[in-house]
Amino acid sequence: MKLLIEKEILLESLTNVMRAISPRNIIPILNGVKFDLEKEGLYITASDSDITIKTFIEKKKIKNINKTGSIIIQSKYLLDIIRKMPNTDINIEVVDGLKIIINTENIIYNLNCLNTEDYPSIELEEIKNPIIISSKNLKKIINQTLFAVSTQESRPLLTGLNLKINNNILECTATDSYRLAKKTLILDKNYENYDLVIPGRNISELDKLLSIENNVEIHPFTNKILFKYNNYLFQSNLLSGTYPNTENLIPTNFEIISTTSLNDFYHAIDRVALLTQNKDKNTIKIETADTTILITSNASEIGKVEETVIINKNSSDNLSISFCSKYMLEALRAFDEKELLILLNTDSSPIVLKSITDESLIQLILPIKTY
Amino acid sequence: MKLLIEKEILLESLTNVMRAISPRNIIPILNGVKFDLEKEGLYITASDSDITIKTFIEKKKIKNINKTGSIIIQSKYLLDIIRKMPNTDINIEVVDGLKIIINTENIIYNLNCLNTEDYPSIELEEIKNPIIISSKNLKKIINQTLFAVSTQESRPLLTGLNLKINNNILECTATDSYRLAKKTLILDKNYENYDLVIPGRNISELDKLLSIENNVEIHPFTNKILFKYNNYLFQSNLLSGTYPNTENLIPTNFEIISTTSLNDFYHAIDRVALLTQNKDKNTIKIETADTTILITSNASEIGKVEETVIINKNSSDNLSISFCSKYMLEALRAFDEKELLILLNTDSSPIVLKSITDESLIQLILPIKTY
């Protein structure tokens, strides 16, 4: 294998592909990045067996392909080596079978490599009718829901993001059983029905990959899912099992329907939450009045804090309800509106947040009972 | 105590004063910030008993002084509370002796306070003829030397920065016994002679305080030193003992005098050091030739790297010498020139770095014997 390639082109591809390499990986060969130089261009693959990312740099973006071939380069120093290279063309060349030379005019790295025969064969399959969605929409869906997945392994399925496709409706749900985020999106046409759970950690790596606006093709299988975007293939394993039905968790009728300024409410919660930040539950309380909402918290050793925010309310009923401020702040950050709907029933039923104009996003937070 | 003050004014003062509060502090009262409201303005003091910072906000910068008095506020949440306040005037008011109210129109914090009587009395003394130096020069001196202080407590004096004043010459030295940084500066006039050692950690906090260009007054005492800058008083304890005489460590004659591009040499060292970054000693080697210097490193499991940089040399002698790349990179960052002097004698004598035009900065690195 021998090629000459511009630093910036190689660096961008490597940076993205190497997101698949996990620092927790214990299989030595998977700490390597696979280079396959073919006549038509360079394929670069990295995998931690849970995520696989593969990219293709086409021939015309490579200065010179002298000799095709394959090699596995230890990833540990590779990204830093390329990043710190001067902005020039870099020569990459396999010598003596298992050594690689990476050099420019003045600098020469001579690195030990791994045998391509030891690299697991990873099939990156595609389906005939992939689901098509813009990278912008996909990023938005991810950012509006992913934060709500569970970080606890006791219920593994909840550590994943649930993706449901029903004709032309995509529904994305995350819950850790204390709060829930749900976003729906209308697709361009009808597709086959799917109901998948993608590990949250993997989705967060996919999110980092989606930097440019372009279409993303989604190719779902029973136990894996492939995202095709620009010159990248991103494959993730799926979590097995049936995701809990969350439909009946979300109330449809509310005793108290109130609207408030998202910005004012967010900053008030943020300020009141300050005194609870070191506690486990970060519990704060809201109390509705006729035209205001009072937000309070109490940390016995430090002191207490209260803030009022103006609201519009549909009824004369009032309610006092406690919840985890961290969950509320994360839910509020998912909205991008001026005005927000806060929907309440009793002090033991979920708090629901919605946009006034757009029904597609629902944030739900379970209250905390205080005595 | 009761006053009304603009958020930004209070925030800036608090941010700076609270640099004195150490997270490792074990004396409860020193986790508090002392507010003293007098007729002429507000004094704010914080201390960890090693560093004390005091600032003064004059009357005309305060919206309203309703009632003078003193209080100690727990620092833990205070800075976040003020930072997250809306940009408006903040009312601060002591109630019931040991409680404080911090409020704006919509938000009210009610915090428990500490008793001013328990706060240690810290004398911030001044001398008649303080040494005067611009904050810009002081920052420069600090940044060119401080990195070389020792982080190991086995020789406590070496964890400090040595400041010597001899007539109109200020000399600043740091060494961890493996490398040494020395900077001299001509002062505006003759001063008394001093020879002090300031704890490195404290100097690094002082450096953060010096954000605006202005003169700094230095008031040295036997066991403490006071820096006066803008509205801030910064006092640090001194390390006791006699700093080792480093004068005779720095060679004055050199077998090989070479010049090279600082930028090229720095980046070459940085690249070659990559493969050694996880090792204890980060040992890399340079070998001079007639017009080039070859920089190499070798990490048996990973591979090896070499880079050549062009030099100008005064003699036909050549030398191969090994050293710690981290020390070399830190020393090189202290220079701000295009061309650099690399001064060598034998493979067991120190490497000395100097600017071509300016004798005031010397960086010295001891070689590592390799076999």
How does this model look, in words?
- Two copies of one chain form a homodimer.
- By secondary structure, the first copy, chain A, is of the alpha+beta class.
- Chain A folds into three domains: 2-118, DNA Polymerase III, subunit A, domain 2 (DNA Polymerase III, Chain A, domain 2, Roll); 131-248, Roll (DNA Polymerase III, Chain A, domain 2); 250-365, DNA Polymerase III, subunit A, domain 2 (DNA Polymerase III, Chain A, domain 2, Roll), CATH 3.10.150.
- The first copy, chain A, is built from six helices and 23 strands.
- In chain A, the strands form two sheets. A 13-stranded antiparallel beta sheet of chain A has the order 5-1-7-8-9-6-2-3-4-15-14-13-10. A ten-stranded antiparallel beta sheet of chain A has the order 11-12-23-22-21-16-19-18-17-20.
- In chain A, β7 and β8 form a beta hairpin.
- In chain A, α5 (262-273) runs antiparallel to α6.
- The longest helix of chain A is centred in the C-terminal third of the chain and has 12 residues, at 262-273.
- Chain A is elongated.
- The mean pLDDT of chain A is 95.
- At the A-B interface, α2, β9, α5 and β19 of A face α2, β9, α5 and β19 of B.
- β19 (303-313) of chain A pairs antiparallel with β9 of chain B.
